[in-house]
Design brief:
The structure is a homodimer. With about 300 residues, chain A is an alpha/beta fold. In chain A, a hairpin with a 2-residue loop joins strand 10 and strand 11 (about 210). Chain A has a single domain (about 1-300), classed as Aldolase class I (TIM Barrel). Chain A has an eight-stranded parallel barrel with strand order 1-2-3-6-7-12-13-14, surrounded by seven helices. Chain A is globular, with a radius of gyration of 19 Å. In chain A, about 45% of the residues lie in helices and about 20% in strands. Chain A is built from 13 helices and 14 strands. At the A-B interface, helix 3, helix 4, helix 5, helix 6 and helix 7 of A face helix 3, helix 4, helix 5, helix 6 and helix 7 of B.
Chain lengths: ~300, ~300
Amino acid sequence: MIGKLIIKIRKCDAPIVAGLDPNLSLIPEKILDNAFSGFGETPKGAAEAVWEFNRAIIEALADVIPAVKPQIAMYEQLGLDGLEVFRRTVNYCRKKELIVIGDVKRGDIGSTSEAYARAHLGSVEIGSSSFVPFGEDFATVNPWFGTDGIKPFTDVCAKEDKGIFVLVKTSNPSGGEFQDLLVDGRPVYEYVAEKVNEWGAALMEGDYSNVGCVVGATYPEVGERLRALMPHAFILVPGYGAQGAKGSDIKGYFNKDGLGAIVNSSRGIIGAWKSDRYASFGPKRFDEAARQACLDMKEDINSNK
Amino acid sequence: MIGKLIIKIRKCDAPIVAGLDPNLSLIPEKILDNAFSGFGETPKGAAEAVWEFNRAIIEALADVIPAVKPQIAMYEQLGLDGLEVFRRTVNYCRKKELIVIGDVKRGDIGSTSEAYARAHLGSVEIGSSSFVPFGEDFATVNPWFGTDGIKPFTDVCAKEDKGIFVLVKTSNPSGGEFQDLLVDGRPVYEYVAEKVNEWGAALMEGDYSNVGCVVGATYPEVGERLRALMPHAFILVPGYGAQGAKGSDIKGYFNKDGLGAIVNSSRGIIGAWKSDRYASFGPKRFDEAARQACLDMKEDINSNK
């Protein structure tokens, strides 16, 4: 799957993933009103508004970026209707040939991680039939349980040609409380990075592994160091835009081949129409604002690489 | 909510939680056949089998134990139908006055943890109405993101009288890869334990906090040490039974008041009918086997306290 992602990145010349994290405050009033008048002020109404919003965004972005990253929490908070729209969104993106990174941050003991791996990357046997629950291409995974919490995911990746991104160093302010603790002079996240190499060794496709990692854009010097420590891991980089990082902060996350990182922006893309910079698009052209934000982000990142 | 849990534990005289983790291999053939003949070999058929199984188990256990812990991964792997049964199970347990610990192990950056906290412990505003997505009483939470990933959960706990259990030291074999790394001579999990105290300080009910922790039964000496380090945190203890721990291993997880821990068994209870010890119940009386397994577990734990 990492090979497919690389082909798409090259084709678009854009190492960019759009975070589909639609909380209701990012959705134009007209879409909300329409959905609520059809389905009431209900979870179903809210979920349908999310769907209409996503659909327009996906259509506007499908030829300029390689991948999207729906954040499942935003759908889970709308209950079953929200999760139905999560699945509909994943299916629609795949139809539009966008790679889908399920931002699910799952992780548990082995037997439970097996269920999560099947849920998001694999399939489930029911009697004599087989069923694909959510069907993302990649999933983000939490490393706290160590190897036996990760192995069920890498097993499914090997079988189904899928990939994972392991949370090595997160972008949030308190991410360092445990991740940065020093063990014999080296931060805990470097120990996770070593395991990422180990977990990914058997899942190489060309120069890169189907086991990638997450390293926040908010710590550029850490990004550079982790780039060197994990030469074959693709880095999924959150923290660009709304969380504060710019193209110049991300230079060190790429390898010399110009690859090795894919940068996420969520609010900065799907909420662009609400920002001063793209205000001229107005709420009716929120999808075009998102497209322009992607093109500008591409320029910012590529000119700094 | 921790106060309610303690009242229930005292009433049942059983510091026990039954893990409702029904993978299909634990469900008697007759229930599967019935569900498949009604709904086909489909996710809906599998989910309805899980529901029939859960319903019987819940009815058999409701007066002997205080709480249940559905593992959401087992439902998530059955897609939307599975998650609908997860919600139905939560509602049914609450109707039967069982405390529900949602074993969801969620955790993310602040704004995303907010959505997870609403999804599992809180409610969501949609227009002028309010909606409860899944409505558990407690949730298990992953600490990897540090304080700002936890705060949205504790905020909801304060507002809605709910609780969380933070993963301090997990029961699986490779849990120690990162959790046991030594920082100035002390394992990382002790740093997490200190934060559990900090996060829980404002959420006390009597002697215990609504911020509890997870410490696996598979490391008794660690349990004893963590008991002392977090005097006000209730410990949710996985690892009993199928994972290998016995009542005598858990003694040190309790405080002098006889409280402070609640021990989980999943397969050991709901899959009891498949074990040699309870084979005489047969597949028809799987629910009675589960009840007997709870009574025996209570005896084993209480006689060792």
